[in-house]
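Morning F.,

Quick status update on the modeling queue. The single chain you submitted on Monday has been processed. Sequence for confirmation:
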Amino acid sequence: MDEYLMNPATGRVDLADNWQAEMLTWDDDPDECQRQFNSLVAVVQDDSGAWIEANPRPRGPHSFAAHLSNLDKPIPPPAWTRHR
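Structure tokens below.
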């Protein structure tokens, strides 16, 4: 099965092999090219033909996805309310 990747900044979708073939033209620094390649998101088409993230996951401690994944966890009281 072909792997499709999306550039989240532009919305462009292409095959992973095509992205890899052109990635060294993005910058003079190969490390920067790899960083940019790593920022691409794996996507699949849903039943309506829209591109959606293939394996959604939290992107950081302050992301909305991380927030949603923590909704079932108890919220500790603020530090200023705790007794020492």
